[in-house]
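Ticket #4471: structure output looks truncated?

Reporter: J.K.
Steps to reproduce: submitted the chain below (281 residues) through the standard prediction queue, then opened the result file.
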Amino acid sequence: MIAFIGSVFSPWYRWSGRADPEDNICINVVTYGRGGRWAMTDRGRAALRQTGDSFTVGPSSLRWEGGRLIIALDEVSTPHAQRLRGRITVTPSAITDVEVPLTDDGAHVWRPFAPVADISVEIDRPGWTWDGHGYLDANFGTRALEADFDYWTWGRFPTPEGAVAFYDAVRRDGSTLGVALRFDRDGGCEAIGAPPLQRFRRSNWLVRRETRCDAGQAPRQVKAMLDAPFYNRCAVETVIDGHRTTGVYEALDLNRFRGPWLMPMLAVRVPRRKGWRFADA
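Returned output as attached by the reporter:
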């Protein structure tokens, strides 16, 4: 799931001229596998409430409580119009102070808050309750993604000590970004020598995919997740420092996203709900 202020993939936000991020807010929830559902409702300013430790968008919310992030969900999927209700609890092993500029002028910043975390998921549908390992990060920006980037990939992969994360991008000016970080369970972080970028099979929408993998090995998709004309998310198996690991990976083609032809397609999957009234308002 992703919580947005200024919903960067929303056609409504682009069509508004991106003048008011707080008038295009969203909590995007996606479940995978049989019966998987998608919810991404773009909401207006009336649906937003913020405090120092909570963020509420209409019927759903995120709040910090005793060192845990509690996410309460109450969304409607598109196009099935089914309710997605439940609770997700993210318990970080530590919170890092790492902040990575993605452009030289700091217009885009990546914050891996909790690269190592436990997660508990309780969704009110049979079989949709589980515990596992999780991850929490954030991206901040003062310009549109497609204004500064042509393409990027990101991946987070568990290791015996914690996790590694890779951020690779091609900027609009032709320069490249290559970030490779190792995190331990206490929040420690160190830059590492990244293994080579290696391509693997394109997505069903033919989005190019490549990730870091030890020389002589080959990355591969082991679970399909989200496939769109400009974006792909999947579980990828790779080998890092001799350790075989499976993590979440994404590839984003901003050249495709830049095209105006895509926005009407996205509007079908991202409904707009401008108004909202809180029960105590």
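Triage note (M.O.): checked the attachment and the full token line is present. The chain has a mean pLDDT of 95.
Status: closed, working as intended.
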